[in-house]
Amino acid sequence: MIDQGIQGRNAAVTEMPHELRHDVRLLGELLGQVIAEQGGADLLADVERLRKAVIAARRGEASADQITAMVTEWEIERAVQIARAFTCYFHLANLAEEHYRIRTLRERDTEGAAQRESLAQAVQELGRERVTELVEGLELHPVLTAHPTEARRRAVVTAIQRVSGQLTEYNTPGRGASERADSRRRLLEEIDLLWRTAQLRSTKLDPLDEVRTAMAAFDETLFRVVPQVYRSLDAALGDATGTRPPLARPFIRYGSWIGGDRDGNPNVTSKVTRDTIQIQAEHVLTALETATSRIARTLTATAQLAPASPRLRSALGAAADASPELVSELAKRSPREPHRQWLLFVAARIAATRRRDLDLAYRSPAELLADLRLTQESLAEHAERQAYGELQHLIWQVETFGFHLAELEVRQHSQVHAAALEEVRAGGELSERTEEVLATIRVIAWIQERFGVTACSRYVVSFTRSADDVAAVYELAEHALGARAPVLDVVPLFESGQDLENSPDVLTGMLELRQVRERLAQTGRRMEVMLGYSDSAKELGPAAATLRLYEAQERLTDWAVRNDVRLRMFHGRGGALGRGGGPANRAVLAQAPGSVAGRFKVTEQGEVIFARYGHTAIARRHMEQVTNAVLLASSPSVGARTAAAADRFRSLAEQVATASERAYRSLTEAPGFPEWFALVSPLEEIGSLRLGSRPARRGLGAPRSLDDLRAIPWVFAWAQTRVNLPGWYGLGTGLAAVASLNELQAAYAEWPLFNAMLDNAEMSLAKTDRSIAERYLALGGRDDFTEQVLEEYDRTRSLVLRVTGHTRLLENRKVLSRAVQLRDPYVDALSHLQLRALRALRTGEVSEQERERLSTLLLLSVNGVAAGLQNTG
Question: Measured between alpha carbons, how far is 576 from 606 in angstroms, rounded to an integer?
Fold first, then answer.
């Protein structure tokens, strides 16, 4: 196994593309220079000693005990500096890989043929007529959440983005020697600043900090990328895009839980929700005003060559009557340029909307769209390219984001509603928590009054057990506002295995509720249900949860057909594999037949937001891939193949699910397991990272059971131990329960769900390091648990390789395999530093001052391992 690892890493180094190798080497050299300048040559020498030692250990030329001795020799302050060095290295290595990915995407885009998993490829495969039909009902609904899995401070992210900008400048072709020298100097300057930037947060985030962080993704990426995706689809559907009315309609709608998700987070209040929608409105109105002004300034076509239509002239006249000074000033600045005058007037009205100047403000996005379409119709008579180019992008942006940017969704636990309803019915004095529930409903009504129903109407109920949990929300709304209660789409969230099984019965009960029936009549019998991946995986194990969720989707799809309901399933997927993560496009294609039907809604969480939306090229590719998958998954031919495979392997799936769940529960429900887990992992310390505003646990103190622990720290902590248990545990036992290897191999080849499940497990296994994991597991003093975990790892690894036919993990995924193999030694370095701190904190008698220093080392290493493994939470 060691020889195979050595060969794999050597091959990975050899196969690394020249451009990537160049950037990694350049950034590494500059970081080394900064370390030497700031910490001295001896600090750089110690970093190099550890770097060479962990690589030698991977080659079998050094032992882990030798590395432990080396790490223990250093003063804690020196160990902290070394941990910071490796963490900064991972930030820069991630950046180099991102730049290489962007270059690769752009190169593929110049090859002429439709890229794999693109919108053009979907049109080629399904045909223009079929895609045109699907586009009419197409809905892609990503929902941003504040789940705390982004370990980096915003200041660190910003510093990395500045390095990114300078790296782009440095690599720009055709630059002279002096320009390159200056770019290198600036690159060094930004890396120096990254080194000096504190990696750890000194204060806990509050919910509005999380809102503002998400707004950065909108400002820098989402607003610009959305019309690019629509343009790609429009070009694929017909020739001459940009000179004719668009064939693509807007199908992306963003949602957000940030500032609205109060389940287990007492920091999210009604005031926070109100402030959140105002922050969102400020950002989107600013973006729309800027875009409108920019386009207006370019519309310098004279009235002679692009005369205004009679309707536009009439509108300008009415504007002059209503705002004579403003329109007169615009006419002076843009004489004989009617379209420019009109769009500048529109920009002024958007600014007034943002300022709440009611005399000039737009009352709704529909009013703004009417003015923009008036401009487009006028230009289309004489200047088609001006009508259907950038102006069309602006129209698409208004249609997508409105004045509220993203639909703000509220989530609360069913038990909170039950307790509030009990108080309300009793008629006595209400508790603070119940008052807050009612205040939240009033804020929803205020948001709808100001921004429209689409800005905030979905109310997600966690741990929905029956239709009574849904009815409780409607009754509370009527108590809060009576006849003025807001329009609510109450969305049941099914998370446990039992709740998933009972979900169709709950929906049947919902149909008996008056408010649900009324809403179905208003929406064309549309209904939404949410499926929780994180908690189901924590309860059942990864394999059983995957298969039970699929069964639930099948039952819900059948229920929707029987009840003539257009059901949209909302997938609460996390970033990590133990929380339903993995490649999003493959996840879509693995859904139960008929469950997508042109509609896909999914959570985007934590570090995934910046990984997918941190750069326009990557964001555009991600959104095209997911849309491609939604279109394909909605086609009858793909659905028929998937249905046939699911039917054929149904018995096999039941065997795997039953055996894997039994194995998983035998570990996680064993007496003493929660306490052991808290000892072998940095679970308790992760809360000190201040990753988000929501508490890591339900309640205080160490977890007495896994029910006390949220899914995110559960997954995050296991990733730190290099075990990655939530991504694979129980799968080996599940596969072993099937007598026929040929049947398992056939399921892997023919059934997208089974294929994705094993490939995701393979990825998780590849990021597991058995030898380092043993060192963590030994801290718990329970040899029986350690043996149980390692035996299941060996069993799962062996059977996954046999079923997939691979000779090594990730054999068929060269890019990912290369990245993992190159990173592993450097993650090892941080793991050894973390183990030193963890061992001392768990087993040693340390002073308060030393405990604080050890905690700093531990948290820095947690931050670095998260950067090295990437999808940790």
Answer: 10
Question: Looking at residues 568-578, what average pLDDT do you find?
Answer: 72
**Assigned domain for 832 exists:** no
Q: Which residues contact 358 (CB under 8 A, 6 or more apart)?
A: none
**pLDDT value for 446:** 98
How confident is the model over 311-331, as a mean pLDDT?
95
Comparison of pLDDT for 109 and 794, the residue scoring more: 794
Domain membership of residue 271 (yes or no) is no
Which residue among 538, 571, 615, 832 is the active-site one? Answer: 538
What is the C-alpha to C-alpha distance for residues 201 and 536, in angstroms, rounded to an integer?
31
Range with lowest mean pLDDT among 444-458, 461-475, 576-590, 815-829: 576-590
Average pLDDT, whole number, for the chain? 90
What is the mean pLDDT of the segment spanning 504-531? 97
Any idea which of 29-43, 329-343, 500-514, 565-579 has the lowest mean pLDDT?
A: 565-579
CA distance linking residue 765 with residue 858, whole number of Å: 24
Residue 67 has pLDDT above 90, yes or no: yes
- Compute the distance between CA of residue 557 and CA of residue 686 in angstroms, rounded to an integer: 39
Could you tell me the two tokens for 451?
């921004």
Least reliable range by pLDDT among 271-285, 798-812, 831-845 = 831-845
Residue 99 backbone zone (phi > 0: left; psi -120 to 50: alpha; other: beta): alpha
Last residue of a domain, one of 382, 401, 420: 401
Q: How many distinct structural domains can be found in the chain? A: 3
Greatest extent of the chain over all pairs of C-alpha atoms, in Å? 87
Please say whether the beta carbons of 506 and 545 come within 8 A.
no
Helix axes 414-426, 432-451, angle to 10 degrees: 100
Question: For the packed helices 128-136 and 223-237, what is the interaxial angle rounded to 10 degrees?
Answer: 140
**Catalytic residue flag (residue 18):** no
- Residue 147 annotated to the active site: yes
Phi, psi angles (nearest 5°) of residue 502: -90, 0
Could you say which of 99, 141, 147, 601 is catalytic? 147
Place of tokens 């959140």: 276
User: Of the residues 812, 828, 856, which one is the last residue of a structural domain?
Assistant: 812
For the whole model, what pTM was predicted?
0.91
In a domain, 251, yes or no: yes
754 lies in which domain range? Answer: 650-812
Judged against a pLDDT cut of 50, whether residue 428 lies above it is answered with yes
Put the strands of the sheet holding 458-462 in their side by side order. 407-408, 255-256, 139-145, 599-605, 566-572, 526-532, 489-494, 458-462, 410-413
In a domain, 138, yes or no: yes
Confidence grade of residue 699 (pLDDT, cut at 50, 70, 90): very low
CA atoms of 488 and 528, how far apart (whole Å): 12
Residue 687 near residue 200 (C-beta atoms within 8 A): no
Q: Which residues of 522-534 are buried (b: 16+ CB within 10 A; e: fewer)?
A: eeeeebbbbbbbb
With beta carbons less than 8 A apart as the criterion, state whether 717 and 685 touch: no
Cα separations in angstroms, 141 against 229, 252, 323, 533, 565: 14, 6, 39, 17, 19
Backbone angles phi, psi at 568, to 5 degrees: -105, 125
Decide if pLDDT at 243 tops 60.
yes
What SS3 state is found at 785? helix
Contacts of 836 (CB under 8 A, 6+ apart): 68, 71, 72, 79, 857
Note whether 644 and 716 are same-domain residues: no
For 359, residues 6+ apart whose C-beta sits below 8 A from its C-beta are 352
pLDDT bin (cut points 50, 70, 90) of residue 13 is low
CA distance linking residue 304 with residue 700, whole number of Å: 74
Alpha-carbon distance of 656 to 652, in angstroms, equals 6
404 DSSP assignment: T
What is the average per-residue pLDDT within 689-710? 57
Same domain (yes/no): 475, 584 = yes
